[in-house]
Amino acid sequence: MPITYEAVKRLTADLYDWSLRKVPDDTKAALREAALAESHEGARRTLEIMLASAHRAEDTEKFVCSDAGVPVYVIRLGTGITMQGDLKKAVIDGFDELTQRISPPLLKHVANPLTNERGYRGKDMPLVTWDVLAGEKDYIDITCQPKALGSGRWAALEIFSYPTLEQIEAYVMDCVMKAGSQHCPPVIIGVGIGGAFDHAAKLASGATLRPMGTKNPEPILAAMEERLLKAVNATGFGPMGTGGDTTALAVHVDFAAGHGFTPVAVSFNCWINRRTRARLYDDGRVERVE
Predict the structure, then answer these.
(1) CA-CA 20 to 30 A from 132: which of 45, 104, 218, 230?
(2) Which of 190, 75, 143 is closest to 289 using CA atoms?
(3) Do the strands 127-132 and 72-77 form a parallel or antiparallel pair, or are they unpaired?
(4) What is the signed CA dihedral for 78, 81, 82, 86, rounded to 10 degrees?
(5) Mind listing the pLDDT tens digit for each residue in 195-223?
(6) What is the separation, in whole angstroms, between the first and last Cα of the chain?
(7) What is the DSSP letter of 48?
(8) pTM
(9) Does residue 126 have a cis peptide bond before it, meaning omega lies within 30 degrees of 0?
(10) Burial class (CB in 10 A: 0-12, 13-18, 19+), 290
(11) How many Cβ atoms are within 10 Å of 287's Cβ, its own excluded?
């Protein structure tokens, strides 16, 4: 039984819809831990308000934030699947249909960068990264991570020549200081090191998807993450800029081999940390992963 156009259209639309109404469980857990550890009374109250908002949105099926952002997908294809229909068009059509039926209605978040005209449609929208799963999997794995102002505006990339770890960490902190509290902290920070220009950005974005509380398998990067998280939280920006100990919930770093030039990319997710993920199997089953 093939994976069909209709199934992909329905699931990609649903993933975007679901992501707007629920803060991921690991993020809520991290917010709770941060509230317990926070020494600043105003920051602690802000974290409690965030948690209450997350639970209320989930209970009432309302949006957590009105700035829904644009749909961004990572779609990984298993080599054991069969396909029927134009799957790329299915993602586009799914978003088109969703904008007509979703309640509450979406603001017009899709912007033409040449004219600044806003609407629901646009070139290359939704934004999709296609990849292939290792092994002969009989499903496609779809992650939706909407990008809005807080999670997109302050991303950055610079290319170095044979940088030291200290130089890399200094650059990350420079990005953190430039962002300040404008990305709706406490944030999740993804860092991509190495590869080529586009690959480093992909690594940084992918690093933000790593579940919080997991340890980096590379010891050098695990130590870097600990140092950076401590340094970011020492800035004192705090939740939504109220001051306090909690500017970031996590810093996740990934790397790739490359040439002598080393791109370093930094990506941020706002406190909502929107993401949903599901697998669509060859037999038509849908498995919710996140």
Answers:
(1) 218
(2) 143
(3) parallel
(4) -30
(5) 999 999 999 999 999 999 999 999 999 99
(6) 25
(7) H
(8) 0.95
(9) yes
(10) middle
(11) 11
